[in-house]
């Protein structure tokens, strides 16, 4: 293996999940070996990462740092990788410190 193809993808709160999954499938077919997903959430439907793994096949694995809550309250990240090409050796989850309060624009966004 000479090149390592990594893609980062914002799932936009796992909305429009069918399109997101299709985009991931298309990129995997072009040789992307690792996906770093942002804004991954659980919804009332199935967990988007489970659907991605079903679509990509058995050789794809994942590790997520996503809360149990649904929608924005459980917002997190996920990494998918092709285990036929790469092996996960170690993982460590770290929590960042919480802010005492949001900036005004962040507060407005959270209310929307």
Describe it for me?
With 112 residues, the protein is α+β, with helices and mostly antiparallel strands. 27% of the residues lie in helices and 22% in strands. It has three helices and four strands; from the N terminus they run βαβαββα. Strands 1-2-4-3 form a four-stranded mixed beta sheet, covered by helices on one side. The longest helix is centred in the N-terminal third of the chain and has 13 residues, at 17-29. It is globular and about 45 Å long. The chain starts with 5 loop residues before the first strand and ends with a helix. The mean pLDDT is 88.
Query: Can you give the helix content as a percent range?
Result: 25-40%
Could you tell me the mean pLDDT? 88
Which sequence of strands runs across the widest sheet? 1-2-4-3
- Strand composition percent: 15-25%
Kindly name the structural category: alpha+beta
Termini separation (Å)? Answer: 45 Å
Evaluate the radius of gyration.
15 Å
Which runs of at least 5 residues are low in confidence (pLDDT < 50)? none
Number of helices: 3
User: How many strands in all?
Assistant: 4
Report the principal-axis shape: globular
The H/E string reads EHEHEEH
Biggest beta sheet attributes: 4 strands, mixed
Features:
alpha+beta; 112 residues
SSE layout and pairings?
Elements: E1 6-10, H1 17-29, E2 34-40, H2 48-56, E3 60-65, E4 76-82, H3 104-111
Parallel strand pairs: 1-2
Antiparallel strand pairs: 2-4, 3-4
